[in-house]
Amino acid sequence: MLHIQYPIPNTQYRSRGQSLIELLVAISVGTILIGGSAGLMGVSLKSYAGIRKHLQANILIRQATEVIQTLARYNWHSIYDLTKASDYKISLSGNTWTISEGQETDTINDIPYKRYFQVYNVNRNVSGNIADSGNDDSSTQKITVILEYGNNYVSSSSVSFYLTRSEDNKVFQQTDWSGGSGQTGPLPNPGNKFYTADSNINYASTTGSIYMTTATTTPAILTSSILDTGVSNGAGFNSLLWQGDLGTGGAVKFQIAFSNSSSTLDTYYGCISAPTECLNPSNWITNSDWSLFYSLDDDTSLIFPTTSTISSTSPQNKRYIRYKVYLSTTGTSPTINDIIINWNP
After folding, report:
1. Which of 56, 222, 278, 316 is the least crowded, having the fewest Cβ atoms under 10 Å away?
2. Buried b (16+ CB within 10 A) or exposed e, 56-78
3. Has domain 170-344 been given CATH number 3.10.20?
4. What's the CA gap between 318 and 227, in Å, rounded?
5. Which residues have C-beta within 8 Å of that of residue 337, sequence separation ≥ 6?
6. Cα–Cα distance, 29 to 93 (Å, whole number)
7. What is the pLDDT of residue 9?
8. CB-based burial label for 177 (10 Å; 0-12, 13-18, 19+)
9. pLDDT tens digits for 99-125?
10. What is the pTM of this model?
11. Could you state, in order of their start, the residue ranges of all structural domains in the chain?
C-alpha cells in the first residue's frame, strides 16, 4: 500500500514559540524577584543604617557614663561642684579625661553627633529615700547624659543615673589616748593624744583604753583633737563607731563638730534618737544637756545624715571634724577601746 505523507504547515516553528513564551515568563518572574529583592535589600540597608546609628549612640553614651563615674570615684568634687542643670562635656587629653563647659560635637562613621551631660542635686525624705522634695543630699547627685545625632541632630538618646560618694573609704581611728591631753590639731591622724578630758577619765591605761576612774553618776567627757581630711572642698562623713564594753548601767554618748575652718569647731551636734533614726536630720541638735542625747551601744554605728541638720548645718562637705565622748554609769564604768570615724574624700 502506498502511504502519502501530507506535511502539516508551520510545525517547524512550534518548539521555537514555546521556548520564547517560557523565556518571557522566566524574565517576568525574574524581574519580579529581582525587584522584590532590591526592595528588601533597600529596606535591609536602611534598617542596618538605623541600627548602626543606635549602636554608635549607645557606645558614646556608655563611654560618657563610665568616664563620669570614674572621675567622681577619685574626685567627688569634680562632679559635685559643677553648676547644676548646665551643659558639660568630657574630653580626652593624652591619657587624662577632663570636664569642661559646653557640648561636644564630632562625626563618626559619617554620623554627626552632639554629646553633653548635666548634673542635678538630689533630695531625700525623712526616711532617707530619694524624693522630689525634702532635704538636699550632698553625697548624691543625679547625672543625665544626652546624645543628639544624625543629620541636623534629628535623633536623640539619653540616660540618667545616680552617683553616691561611697568609694575610697577612709577612717580616723583612735585606739590609744595614753599620750595625754593638749593636742589641738588639726592632724591627719589622732595618734595617742587628745585635746581635753575630765579628771575622772583614765586615759593612761596600758591597754590604750579610756574609762571612768570612779563608778559614780558624775559624767566624764573627753574631747578629741581636730582631725583633718585634707579635702579642701570638704569630705563626706558617713558614721562613727565605738568598740569596747558598755559596762553595767553604763552610757556612752557622742557629739561631733565640723567645719571648713580649723578655728571654728566649737558647735557640737548629737543625735537624740536611736541610730536607725539618725539619718533624719531633724533628730540632730546642738545642746549642752547630755541627757537629751541617745546612748550608743558598743559596736553600733552612729550614722551621720547626708542632708542638712539643724540651722542648715551639715557634716557633709566639711574638711575638719572632732568628737566629744560622754561616759556615765550607775555601776561598772564603760570601757572604750576604739573610736572610728568613717569618711570619703
Report:
1. 56
2. bbeebbeebbebbeebbbeebbb
3. no
4. 11
5. 175, 207, 208, 209, 243, 244
6. 60
7. 53
8. buried
9. 999 999 999 888 899 999 999 999 888
10. 0.75
11. 50-164, 170-344
